[in-house]
Amino acid sequence: MPELAEVETVRKALEEEALGKRIVSIDVLRKKNILTGAEKLCLGLVGATFMKFDRLGKHLIFHFSNGRVLLCHLRMEGKYFLDRVGDPYRKQDLVGFNFQDGSRLTYNDVRKFGTFELYSEDDYFQKSSLSKLGKEPFALTKEELYGKLQRSSRPIKEAIMDQTIIAGLGNIYADEVLFAARINPRTPAKEISLEQADSILKESVRILYQAIALGGSTIKSYHPKEGVSGMMQNRLHAYGRKNRDCERCGTPMHTIFINGRSSTYCPKCQKQVGRPFVIAVCGPIHSGKSTVAKYLESKGYPRFDADAAVKTLYEEKAVRKQMKLTLGNKAVYKGAINVPYISKQLSDKKKKAEWLGYLYPLVKEKAEEFILSHKEEEHVVLEVPLLYGSGLEILTDMVILVDASASIRENRIKEEGKDAERQMKLNKGYPLAYAKANATYFLRNDGDLKTLKSRIDELPLL
Ligand SMILES: [Zn+2]
Fold first, then answer.
1. Are strands 59-64 and 50-56 parallel, antiparallel or unpaired?
2. Could you confirm whether 242 is annotated as catalytic?
3. Is there a domain that residue 51 lies in?
4. Which residues of the chain have pLDDT under 70?
5. Which of 48, 228, 335, 341 stands 20 to 30 A from 408 (CA)?
6. Does 389 fall in a domain?
């Protein structure tokens, strides 16, 4: 997605290509993207000349000779091409501005999210979303930023991507700025100190200037202009470097999802102030994840057991009430949790989603309480069998995935005298491929306990 630096690259390119050109006609190929109306756009701009190309945050602002102002937001993948009038349109072309000199500026957008809004010089700022934009890092003072952050308990990564707080930082440069400033992305914004706010601003300015100088980043399919690629993607130290070693300290970079966006950071260089390192252990049934978590506990890492937390929650009145509402009255039978009935109810996908949507945030709360109650510790371990999708991933700095072959796991269940077939069936949907792709370390537990322990001892933990 184009951010400030990429939009600035587009702005410069357009200035070179379209400044002083007069529009003789406009082809609107997709009316939906012209928020202020396609007819108004044509009426307002035919006969007008491009006079000035501005930018604020990620918004392009085109000023015309007749006092009209056109705002363009590229959103995910919007881009411009310079064609000739009459050239056949590409499949994803949305608008064509035909110029008097026979050239045509074409707006192309694969994702079709880009927008145009037409205003006049007098009202474009007030009437458009620009009025809600915060200042760009170049204009913001540390006191102003600090003041705004003080009022928010959202994670700092989310706060600095909020365009009303600071304009221009998107996912890529927010990761880069926090890495450079050595700030953990999940730090609550109100816990950011004045010095840290200063550091965020200084690094934002430095990184954005560097990115602008290098023509922005060309990530995935985004090109600022046909045939032109930015070079900044080669200078990124955090964004997109999941599980690769930190360039400063060698620790594997960790990725968590904040507000639905991937956030990559170094758990060591960007350690969260006032919190221990959080190592999660996950894995399918009888993979040995408990053995791993308990072994770490024996080595002095306080352990949180998500399954035990669920059991405690099941004793709470409010939880039981909700359980009956979601899964039916029989979920609690004679004062006890009716496990067979509940497992049966949970085979209904919709019910399961509803129930977990209620339960997981409560487990996350318990895990957060546990982490906060161990502020003085260097590390803690979260044993969460189904980590991914539970919402607890955001709390972690490192993830160990434990697995063993299906036959070995089945034998372990049998040894405990349990119904192996049923247990294995219940665990069939375990998202192992996803976990493997995302965990920091993968521990194969096909051997004996001694082998497993020596493998854990070899892990370069935080
Ligand atoms: Zn590091």
1. antiparallel
2. no
3. yes
4. 218-229
5. 341
6. yes
